[in-house]
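Minutes, structural biology subgroup

Action item carried over from last meeting: produce the structure token record for phosphoglycerate mutase (2,3-diphosphoglycerate-independent) (Adiantum capillus-veneris). EB confirmed the sequence was re-checked against the source entry. Recorded below for completeness.
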Amino acid sequence: MQLKADIQKFIEQYCPPFVIVDKNGKSVGPIVDGDALVTFNFRADRMIMLAKALKYANFDNFDRVHVPKTHSAGMLQYDGELKLPSKYLVSPPKLTGHLVNTSQRKDSEPLHAARQ
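Output recorded by EB:
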């Protein structure tokens, strides 16, 4: 399947699941027990799904033939409440000066915003 040729306006958000296989239909790069993975993606929702697939035995958002025992870390922690992934390379940033905090300061002018 040639994704860009088969799907008009192909973008990552609508990419169907796929496996890269050899001429005999066998996966060329399966994740197996003992593998180490470093995951990263701009889209947090994709990374949370992948972290859940690697961590939770009862994950069922897509089919898994085998759930390998791996060592994994994310570039970032994408879900602070679920602590996913539990191991990550860059600490989550400390965010300050949020719009809501700034707009609620006593000395700030009221914020008026509109969308057309």
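Discussion: The mean pLDDT is 81.
Next step: EB to file the record with the rest of the batch.
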